[in-house]
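Example 343.
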Amino acid sequence: MKAFDISIIGATGAVGAELIRLLESSRIPVSRLRLIASGNSSGRQSNFREEVCIVEPLREVDDIKSDIVFFSAGGAVSAAFGPRFAAQGALVIDNSNAFRMDPDVPLVVPQVNPSALAVRPRSGIVANPNCSTIQLVRALRPLVKAFDVHQIILATYQAASGGGLVGIDELLNGTRSALDGRAGPSAERFPFPLAFNAIPQVGEISPEGVTVEEHKLVQESRKILGVPDLRLTSTCVRVPVMNGHSEAVYLEFEEPVRLEQVHDLLAKEPGVRLYADGIREGYPMPRFLEDPAEVHVGRVRLNPGDPCGLWIWVVADNLQVGAALNALLIAQLSIANNLIGGT
Ligand SMILES: NC(=O)c1ccc[n+]([C@@H]2O[C@H](COP(=O)([O-])OP(=O)(O)OC[C@H]3O[C@@H](n4cnc5c(N)ncnc54)[C@H](OP(=O)(O)O)[C@@H]3O)[C@@H](O)[C@H]2O)c1
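Predicted structure in complex with NAP:
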């Protein structure tokens, strides 16, 4: 089997670290792994399989010479370097929102729309969706396929790790300060202190009052599910959870649905773990997720006042399912489809 030269931009971040770990335990043969970050992390060391990798500063990378380049360093870095590295022959797998709605860039969740990656995109770039979108579309896929959906309304409960390492530190330090009765550190990643709080704003708010995260959920879900007129609306909330996003999702169908059929569809969906009567007791919670590679669905119930209405509660590890694991699965799918060179 071929081996692949792989680079990770943003290797020292929350997603980058998870990606290194998942790549290490994957079956992808790696001929060389380049770890790249900002100048602040230059020289840091990280073990990968039998090798010690030394983090390089991005500004010193001229010709990338990699088969696959993962970007996890924010939209500005992806926009500046993604097309350049793609033009040098790499398949770029981008975790940021820089290219997600670009018509020349497939937006891929391998369990949902693998056919979007049947051929190598002309742009040389594949986009990884937003974390809250990935878990949502993975839970929605069998339901949207089986039934006519009138509209979907959801609220998200998003963890601090969605704001990267700074977000995690901000929650930890803010919690310690509040418990010690001290004024907390000033909010940097989030608009207000997150400890003991719930912030109904994830990203900037548009003049219409919609946040960036709420906008992304609509646009990206439509593109991935292939339903351009999908009616979906949300309120995205940052909560003081360390890791793991939760979503309360209300689906309104055109016709009444049977709960048994919904259970059956979700129970059979690969990568979805269902918590429902007779299958698995209880309900999923971000702090106690058994398998961070799966999308956990519970509280599945019909609206007693409307047989066309269904509630589900969807929880997933945003750093894995919502970012690093999806990116790795995109790489595996690209290799399986012979879209990448290798040696
Ligand atoms: N966290 C999530 O749940 C999640 C989910 C989906 C997608 N994403 C996306 O994934 C990306 C990374 O998120 P994260 O949570 O891992 O953030 P993070 O913990 O803040 O890590 C950011 C990474 O980017 C690097 N970086 C920053 N500026 C750079 C520059 N100018 N040049 C080179 N490297 C630079 C940092 O390097 P230094 O350590 O040297 O500063 C670090 O490795 C973002 O685009 C985010 O939107 C995140």
